Amino acid sequence: RKEVEQDPGPFNVPEGATVAFNCTYSNSASQSFFWYRQDCRKEPKLLMSVYSSGNEDGRFTAQLNRASQYISLLIRDSKLSDSATYLCVALTGNQFYFGTGTSLTVIP
Amino acid sequence: GAGVSQSPRYKVTKRGQDVALRCDPISGHVSLYWYRQALGQGPEFLTYFNYEAQQDKSGLPNDRFSAERPEGSISTLTIQRTEQRDSAMYRCASSPYSNQPQHFGDGTRLSIL
Question: Is A32 in CB contact (< 8 Å) with chain B?
């Protein structure tokens, strides 16, 4: 079983829509979680860390549910520029485990 | 430099040749990670260093792969006797310390003919 699993999508949504991605992790010992964004042929870039209490950064909200071992990312009021692949990451010990990524395309 | 720098950006070589991929992390970053990323997949861990010490090399696929970071800054990932299955994007990332979010370089696209 993979350490981190994500629905690869693709998600195609119209501009202005709200879209949510979920991710599950298999190791209950994982201590930190992150969402990265990766544009086509570019390097992954940190979007936000995920905290147990949930956290928000503008149009982006991340949630962590330790009991169910899943992480979510909510994007409100989608912009064309949000089109990218979103990678879920779990830190276990000193190793970062990346999901395969969820592809999002925002359509005009 | 301001970010993580990797070289070369592209490397094409014949099967059986040795290749060396270089990573120059963000200045002052203690931790340096190497990943391999296949198309449509997330980065897959290969190995990591804190300072010059290789902390974990469990992700290296076999003994043809090795990495070093002799002075705790620049790192080199070496692949000996390359095979076609080694073709991939190789990414380096650094962080202030090992449990903190990472900053990635542009990667080296390796193609083995």
Answer: yes
